[in-house]
């Protein structure tokens, strides 16, 4: 097993990525892309600050050199360099003395989770602030505090990163994860790490029916930018999409959120596989929770983009707090996620809609060596007929209206069991993918 | 409460309308329209005798001055002036002596209900006759009777009456009741009285999404005439229709007969409301029973016209007899019907199909003051998110394919609970009704 | 009862047809057509050897004068003149001495059914061979055998035979059976004999709504040839098709295999009739078993062709062996099959989609003598309303979208019970078949 397949590799990469102060724009995001770029050939696409993306405007870059809050005794009660979520993400600059009463308006903490520091952002309204645990906040004494945020907003770009593995068909599978949170584990780094793992696996397949596009982007504004650039391309070519996040944590099971219209191949494949021993769960689409799949599934696009995670959909207490760390996430669940997702996409490769090129009557299979030339009915022959039956089903239902999952369902078998028959008929040019 | 909202008002109006000798044409019908015209601005539309209406011909007006049947002793065994259903409705004139044996061919009675006088009509074949109770008929002795009907058939018009309350949209709700039976209570006057009550309520709503059209017409030939005049207009604009009759009697429950194709808003709303506490019943369309909804639902029109009544669909013994009187009908059930129908049409106002005007990705709700600008996940916020969730659902499914009932169903809530979110998004021009 | 309706007739015909050495081409097939041609006016359509039919090529005619296998002692261990399936059907000529070891490659027998001679063909690869029981084969002693097949392959034609009974409509019902096996009973002669019986019945109907086409053809290559000639005609006109075979044997029940798309009238009628006392069974289409219906249901045609048989779909041990003989088949089941199929096609005559020619409102039935001109509600009248109700249903749903089976289902009655109402409305030109 190569190093890149090991838990050690993912652990090392995690440790390198975790401390970086990311936001939806700026140097932390680019630095993170550079690290992933060592292992997959990422192309960076940039969108200028201030340009419009549908109903939104690309925000300026946020550069934050330092941020801390001193109590009346000069102790750092918040310090970005200790834990980078202690500064309100996208905070405007400040350097002033302030009384505790007024300061309270700039502090964020969680009464329900008194030991945790919350992760808070204010991208679309200028504010300054600090995040701290409720326990720390309760200990603050009246007096004069000093609030320092050495940040600036700079015209620059919002960046997304992508790479493509070409397949026999231009029809495309899109896999994406977001990369914009600072020091968060499960609800941040788990997604890009699994995406990288899947890239490494799919790159090694001997052939690919579909083209695979891998995308890293800042959440929401990033997927909107992706859609601004590729929306029409996706409408034409995408057969399945998957937004990947929260791939660690305790639950053993992958949970897939279906796409809005449930018309993608993956939407259809996932419950089919469940009937034949796969253990994931499926929940319907909703625009109320989740991540970038909401943008892909907006009414103007309605793309077949699903979302996968472990704990996210049921919620986990550490979500968006300092408790979402490497220990809570774990490295092993990431490797398990990569394995399970690869198996699913291997099955996905057998899913296609075909046109029978000899649709008028049955083709003469005997003349192609696919059918016995002596016609004698014996029980033995009937027992051996499974592959021949697959071929007959594929040819009869090769009408551009049934896909291979439909045909497998008609036989009450898993689509992966038809791989051999599909291959022989494609080789004989009796089936052509539509 | 104004007089027009009281039981007394409806009781007085009933007493004024009951004795009038109505038929499908003629002075009794016009006189009745005049009385309703005091309380709603009715426009009268007239169709000339003899003109064609689809497969039918407008009949002449029937003017009947007097009608009675004298027994050999000179007693009036039938007398239109005592009870106007004692003359066969639309009877031709007669003035002759006649032996009992021959007379029997001109008498109508009900062996199953011996005390009741039946209400009988012969619009489309010329006949003369009298209606009497089976008890009276059994007492008739052989001898020479005198039959007098002082009627004439006059070229004139068939009249319908309507009024419209405009709404923001040209899309239209049609409400109709028939007014052609002589002294009948539940199966006649209850319908127009409830229609008037609904008019008074809807007129007072501060704004109306839909346009409401109220129609009074003689049954069958009248609704055919309405269709002849407005059929194409209805095909283009009608979102729901409702034929109202038999609104009195004992049963507490309104029973709605669905339209033929179950494609109207009302068809969809009625069972939706049942899931959230409304108590009415719904039965499927049938062309075998009922009233004017059969014409609206004929294959050439297939309009979304439902029918509502209390007892009619299950039948009631008094139907089309002298027993269908004020006592059997009651006034209170009419007021209850008005209340219930108003509630249903208030819910109907929240039912519409919208187009999201920012369909590419999610719109930026924060910039419009509809979304918090600080992103911090707390349990408290999740509890308050109901209206925001409604907005997200309305925007995501604002695709011209889902209406607000669909969207409410997706959330397992009543469409009336989304009123606030609908209003805010319409105000921001993020939703436009299609 | 005429002779042609008797069991004796079918028994005599069977005896004449059984010994003929048929194949998919050649003199045996033509001789069999000639015999059927005495009782139905068959038109013969011929396709030249070597011409292409879709993905196939018409094979040469096989003429086989004699075939036998002599053991070292000169005994005939196989002899075409004793039982014509003892020669491999479509065997190439041979005349040589051969040792037992080598001869074994040319022998066919059934270890599972040691007393039976199998029926084996090799149409699409040139071979010679003999079929014998496993019991006989086991007794063969080493030594020199003499194998003689006096056959030749001749450029000629492949022939199909058809006849048509015209109906009021050009819409067509196709009934077919195959005729290409040599001495086989249930899985050969039962089908054409029942087809002939149905022809005799349908010819005698006083009128026919539909046109009926009866076809005899060699299996597979014959139905492909039929499609080559009539495929476009069928696409335009066929409302139902039925491939008939294996109509004898023990099971009392007819089993229908539905067509691929289940869009034919027969597909819809068969389960409808089951709800009203008919006892046949229905199984879904599959391209894996069966006969010519596989060609008719191929993706390029997708014709509404069902298949009917008794034992075939569940399998029977005698299938394609010398045990499939008159005794196993029986004559009585053929007569029973003819009766049952006639009943089903009589019901099929009531199945059609109609357009109401007066679709705007209800037509005036009273003016046509179809409705009472006096309107008086009595219980007695309601009880008599069944036919009138049928008429109202047929008119309201005479919208080109509902057929008579749909309308019968809406009333929970059998389509055959609406015959009278259908007839009256067609006579009045209120309904027109579409």
Automatic annotation (TrEMBL), chains A, B, C:
Which parts form a coiled-coil structure per UniProt? none
Q: Where is the DUF4910 domain?
A: 13-347
Entry's InterPro entries?
Answer: DUF2172, DUF4910, UCP015244, UCP01524_HTH, WH-like_DNA-bd_sf
Q: Which residues form the DUF2172 domain?
A: 61-152
Where would I find the UCP01524 winged helix-turn-helix domain in this sequence? 353-432
Per its record, how is this protein called by name? DUF4910 domain-containing protein
Q: Source species, please?
A: Pseudoalteromonas obscura
Q: What lineage is this protein's organism placed in?
A: Bacteria, Pseudomonadati, Pseudomonadota, Gammaproteobacteria, Alteromonadales
């Amino acid at each position: 097993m190569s190093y890149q397949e090991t838990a050690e590799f993912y652990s090392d990469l995690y440790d390198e990525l975790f401390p970086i102060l990311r936001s939806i724009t700026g140097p932390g995001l680019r630095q993170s892309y550079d690290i992933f770029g060592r292992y997959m050939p990422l192309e960076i696409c940039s969108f200028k600050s201030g340009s419009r993306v549908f109903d939104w405007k690309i925000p300026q870059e946020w550069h934050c050199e330092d941020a801390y809050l001193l109590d009346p005794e000069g102790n750092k009660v918040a310090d970005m360099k200790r834990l980078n979520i202690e500064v309100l993400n996208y905070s405007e600059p400040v350097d002033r003395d302030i009384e505790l009463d007024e300061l309270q308006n700039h502090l964020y903490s969680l009464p329900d989770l008194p030991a945790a520091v919350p992760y808070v952002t204010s991208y679309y309204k200028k504010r300054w602030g600090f995040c701290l645990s409720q326990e720390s906040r309760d200990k603050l004494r009246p007096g004069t505090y000093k609030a320092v945020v050495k940040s600036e907003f700079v015209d620059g770009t919002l960046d997304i990163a992508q790479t493509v593995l070409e397949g026999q068909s231009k029809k495309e599978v899109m896999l994406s994860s977001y990369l914009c949170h600072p020091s968060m584990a499960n609800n941040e780094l788990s997604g890009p790490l699994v995406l990288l793992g899947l890239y490494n696996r799919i790159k090694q397949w001997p052939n690919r029916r579909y083209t695979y596009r891998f995308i890293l982007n800042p959440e929401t504004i990033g997927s909107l930018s992706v859609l601004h650039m590729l929306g029409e391309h996706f409408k034409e070519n995408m057969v399945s999409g998957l937004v990947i996040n929260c791939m660690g944590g305790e639950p053993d099971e992958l949970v897939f959120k279906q796409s809005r219209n449930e018309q993608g191949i993956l939407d259809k494949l996932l419950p089919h596989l469940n009937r034949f021993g796969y253990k994931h769960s499926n929940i319907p689409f909703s625009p109320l929770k989740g991540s970038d799949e909401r943008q892909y599934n907006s009414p103007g696009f309605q793309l077949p983009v699903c979302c996968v995670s472990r704990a996210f959909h049921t919620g986990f207490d550490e979500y968006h707090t300092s408790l979402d760390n490497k220990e809570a996430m774990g490295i092993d669940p990431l490797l398990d996620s990569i394995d399970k997702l690869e198996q699913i996409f291997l099955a996905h490769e057998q899913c296609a809609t075909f046109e029978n090129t000899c649709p008028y009557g049955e083709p003469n299979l005997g003349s192609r060596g696919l059918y016995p030339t002596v016609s004698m009915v014996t029980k033995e022959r009937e027992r051996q007929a499974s592959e021949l039956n697959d071929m007959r089903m594929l040819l009869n239902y090769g009408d551009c209206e049934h896909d291979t999952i439909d045909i497998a369902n008609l036989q009450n078998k898993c689509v992966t069991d038809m791989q051999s028959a599909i291959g022989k008929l494609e080789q004989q040019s009796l089936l052509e993918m539509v």
